[in-house]
Design a protein that fits this description.
3-stranded antiparallel sheet; alpha+beta; 127 residues; hypothetical protein PF0899 fold
Length: 127
């Protein structure tokens, strides 16, 4: 289950940022997960609960934003959001080989417990 490894990486990033920004307890963590990332959301949640015990992120809510598969249609020169995983532009009836999104797994932000403030990874060390 590679989700435990992913959960450890997310936890490491959040804990490092929390330490730099003087955050004692993380309230939530927002992730962006592409449909083609291979991540099983429930396994990721379970893995995160396991690895976060005793850390500032213990009990933090994982907010998962599911990212669709988006390809580039070469005929229409536009983005196409796919319903399935068939790389084909239904409008122009052509195959689309250029994948624009859908494989990502990004740490978007985390919030401070009891505070509506969110911290983005780019803000590490700025506070």
């Amino acid at each position: 289950m590679h989700e435990v490894s992913i959960a450890r990486t997310i936890l490491s990033e959040v804990v490092a940022s929390a330490a730099i920004n003087d955050v004692a307890h993380v309230g939530s963590i927002t992730l962006r997960v592409g449909r083609l990332s291979g991540v099983v959301e429930e396994a990721l949640r379970f893995g995160f609960e396991m690895v976060s015990v005793g850390s500032p992120a213990e009990g933090a809510e994982l907010i998962v934003e599911n990212e669709p598969v988006v390809v580039w249609c070469p005929d229409g020169q536009h983005r196409v959001e796919l319903e399935g995983v068939r790389f084909f532009c239904d409008t122009h009836q052509v195959p689309c080989s250029k994948l624009l999104s859908g494989r990502q797994l990004e740490l978007v932000s985390y919030s401070i417990a009891g505070d509506p403030t969110t911290v983005e990874p780019a803000q590490v060390g700025e506070n």
